[in-house]
Amino acid sequence: MTNLEIAELLRRVAAAYQILGENRFRIIAYERAADSIEHLTSELKDYWDDKKLQEIPGVGETLAGHLDELFRTGHSKHFDSVMKKLPQAVFPLLLVPGLGPKKAYKLVTEFKFKSEKTAISDLEKAAKAHKIAPLEGFGEKSEADILANIAIFRRGQIKENRMALPIADGIAQDIIAFLKKTGAEKIDVLGSLRRCVSTIGDIDIAASTNDPKKVIAHFLTYPHQEIIEEGPTGASLRLHNGRQVDLRVQKPELYGAMLQYFTGSKNHNIALRSFALSKGLSLNEYGMKHVATGKVDTFKTEEAFYHALGLPYIPPELREDKGEITKNLPKLVELRDIKGDLHIHTDYDLKPSHDLGVHSFGEILHKAKELGYEYIGISDHNPSINNHTEKQIVEIMKRRKEYYQKHHTSSVQYVLLCEVDILTDGKLALPEAAFEYVDGIIASIHSSFTQDRTTVTKRIITALESNPKVRILGHPTGRLFSKREGIDADWPEIFDVCKKQDIALEINAYPDRLDLPDVLVYDAVKKGLKCVINTDAHAVGHMDLMRYGVSVARRGWATKRDIVNTMDYNDFKKWLMKGV
DNA sequence: GCCGTTTTCGGCCCGACTGTTTTCAGTCG
User: Fold this and answer.
1) CA distance A401 to A397
2) Distance of C1' in B27 from CA in A145, Å
3) Separation between Cα atoms, residue A336 and residue A565, nearest integer Å
4) For all residues of chain A together, what is the average pLDDT?
5) Contact (Cβ atoms closer than 8 angstroms) between residue A553 and residue A519
6) Which residue is nearest to nucleotide B29 (CA to C1')?
7) Which pTM was predicted?
8) Which of these, A520, A513, A516, A510, lies nearest to A532 by C-alpha position?
9) How many CB atoms lie within 10 A of CB A285?
10) Among the residues of A112-211, which ranges form H helices?
């Protein structure tokens, strides 16, 4: 089951509890757990595999027990028994905007809808026959709204999935540049985009201005398909690509509280408001109220807002209710700490089994210089093993080394790496004799992503232990947001091996990957492992994507010391060549 | 049902919006 499916299941149980008149805090607990699970950046099943369900905010002993049963047997007797107390037709109606448990239950019992499958079309028929308006608590308007919202629901069904962070950021940056022409004092992204979550739903943008009318009017001239909403404090557009963009404007005096409030996460804000209450302060999107006196403080900046609570500024990437309010905060790694990009493909053709880059070594070096790097790593794929003999491969690798030596004309240093496939049995797709022609190996999985946990774990460990020149585990989970889930591996076991061999885990910044995922970075960093942030560039333009890898590292609480490519060239080279 | 900078028991975030209502319940984020 996917995270979204499990979140929906918990919401159904919560809805059932609500109709049954259960304790309202129990209902809130289920809804909160559902929200947490929906917004996880890893599969819930992985948490279960690693026996870490209770680390999820809002999941305690009881829910962890029910979820455990769900994963083991495919069902939870408790969830089933709660939901069985209601007519099943209630549940699909909950997916229609504007219908919650109470209204859905009323409609289903009034009209005696029986089938879960036809509930929505049954409701549509009832609305068209004007049978809803006469019901107590409903009226003409709500009958019309139900029809409109059923249509929205049906459109939503075919809505595209969430988009990868760099895609969303690209759209947002374009709009921000557009809005800057209005002279707004400050413009920021909000929500999951500001927290740099790996996948984004809608794009939210905030502007600070004393002339909200002007900013909103200009926003509405941004190329769009449809205006969804327009009001005095903001507006929403649907773009031609189907994406929704919300703008919120606020006066500069109130901007700090607004920015904080709409950046979330929801769980962070709930925890923060609880914390504030313990100090006699009540928080909302406009400021901070002293409960005893009723006095309200306002804030121009988020920094001032957090400081007024006696807290340090909490970077958006940490706002996930993972202890950021009570624990000492790490000094997070920053883009400017990065001194080199080590996973770059050039157009040098060594007859690999995967794709080449499109730019030359010279063009890559030039770009690296522009980015202020001290060094880069050239990491072409290994020569195809099906089309060559071992001897031919060794010869190719030897010529390759000579090629790069000959063409290196830059003050930017380079190390000669190779991205080598981890074959299905854990052997590396590069003959032992070719290793002398590289400085180090990035070992990566590019096939058989669905092997079972034991097999794939052993496969990776075999590869990592096969040669001291293996220094980096490339895009470790192999996930691609738009195409496939990652491998199902025993990460604690793999991390132990990386730790022992001082092998770095790659945080691959490629938009569709962002792999290692942030939650695993968090675990790795806690264990004292090293990571390396790479772009996996196949073109010079990709080298600009480094910042998204950095954001993943930051969401994993990584500091500069946790990232090997923040070292200067000499220290890095020493780390790379260690054990050889 | 969760959770701990008052607490392992006894609390539990905050406000906007809407429609159907004369003060509020339900829904949403």
Assistant:
1) 6
2) 13
3) 11
4) 92
5) no
6) A266
7) 0.85
8) A516
9) 14
10) 119-128, 140-157, 165-180, 191-194
Question: Is residue A173 classed exposed, middle or buried when 0-12, 13-18 and 19+ CB atoms within 10 A define those classes?
Answer: exposed
Nucleotide nearest to A296 in CA–C1' terms? B14
* A278 CA – B12 C1', rounded, Å: 12
CB atoms within 10 A of CB A568: 11
Burial level of A309, CB count in 10 A (0-12/13-18/19+)?
middle
Determine the residue type at A154. Answer: R
Which two structure tokens, joined as six digits, stand for A198? 């790996």
* Predicted confidence (pLDDT) per residue in A65-114, tens digit: 999 999 999 999 999 999 999 999 999 999 888 899 999 999 999 999 98
Residue A378 DSSP class: E
pLDDT for residue A416? 97
Q: Peptide bond preceding A482: is omega within 30 degrees of 0, i.e. cis?
A: no
Beta bridge partners of A536: none
State which nucleotides on strand B lie below 7 Å from a protein beta carbon. Answer: 1-3, 5-7, 11-15, 17-21, 25-29
For residue range A99-154, list pLDDT tens digits in order: 999 999 999 999 999 898 899 999 999 999 999 988 988 988 889 989 988 887 88
Residue A350 CB closer than 7 angstroms to strand B?
A: no
**Cβ contact A328 with chain B strand, < 7 A:** no
Q: And the tokens for A550?
A: 């950095």
**Residues of chain A with confidence (pLDDT) below 50:** 158-159
Contact A498, A529 (CB under 8 A): yes
For residue A244, say whether its CB is under 7 Å from any atom of strand B. no
Q: What is the pLDDT of residue A159?
A: 45
Decide: residue A70, CB within 10 A, 0-12 exposed, 13-18 middle, 19+ buried: buried
